[in-house]
Amino acid sequence: MNYHQGAGVEVRIAHMFNTYGPWMCLDDGRVGGNFVSLCVIKLTHKQPMTIYGDV
């Protein structure tokens, strides 16, 4: 936005949702972290994974 305001250049901002990366907190509510947390919990307790949907 600073470049847009300073230089008058038209800009577009993209916000990526549900991304996953090395510094992401697993309990912040995003899909990737929830999935990883669930997999770790299920695997460490030797419970079957739940699969939703039929595709």
TrEMBL record:
Its cofactor is NAD(+). The keyword NAD applies. The keyword NAD applies. GO terms for biological process: D-xylose metabolic process. Keywords: Lyase, NAD. GO terms for molecular function: NAD+ binding; UDP-glucuronate decarboxylase activity. Its EC number is 4.1.1.35. InterPro entries: UXS-like (IPR044516). PANTHER family: UDP-GLUCURONIC ACID DECARBOXYLASE 1, UDP-GLUCURONIC ACID DECARBOXYLASE-RELATED. This is UDP-glucuronate decarboxylase. It comes from Helianthus annuus.
